[in-house]
Write a structure and sequence with these properties.
This protein is α+β, with helices and mostly antiparallel strands. The protein has one domain: Alpha-Beta Plaits (2-Layer Sandwich). Helices cover about 25% and strands about 40% of the residues. Strands 4-1-3-2-5 form a five-stranded mixed β-sheet, with helices on one face. Strand 2 and strand 3 form a beta hairpin. The radius of gyration is 12 Å and the shape is globular.
């Protein structure tokens, strides 16, 4: 199976509803590495790396998110796989 890297922006009411923590749980459950963070414009941004099917499962989950989230759009950009992460982390945003 091919390894992929996806850069994702999740838009809507997605901050303050445990989106980052539950994204991390989903990623780890599917053996996906990378990171997730809040952005200063109210969105959530993430990079997912792993087996194509596993990454797709996490992205599909992002379309709904955790209870309390109201996802309006999920933008997905394919990037070159780098294999640079050993786990999936939550980045703190300082803006």
């Amino acid at each position: 199976m091919a390894k992929v890297r996806k850069h994702v922006i999740i838009k809507g009411f997605v901050q303050g509803v445990w989106f980052r923590a539950t994204t991390q749980e989903q990623a780890l459950a599917h053996h996906v590495t990378g990171w997730v963070k809040n952005t200063n414009d109210g969105n959530v941004e993430a990079v997912f790396e792993g087996e194509a099917d596993d990454v797709e499962k996490v992205i599909q989950w992002c379309h709904q998110g955790p209870s309390g989230a109201h996802v309006k759009d999920v933008e997905v950009e394919t990037e070159e796989y780098k294999g640079e992460y050993s786990t999936f982390s939550i980045k703190r945003s300082y803006w």
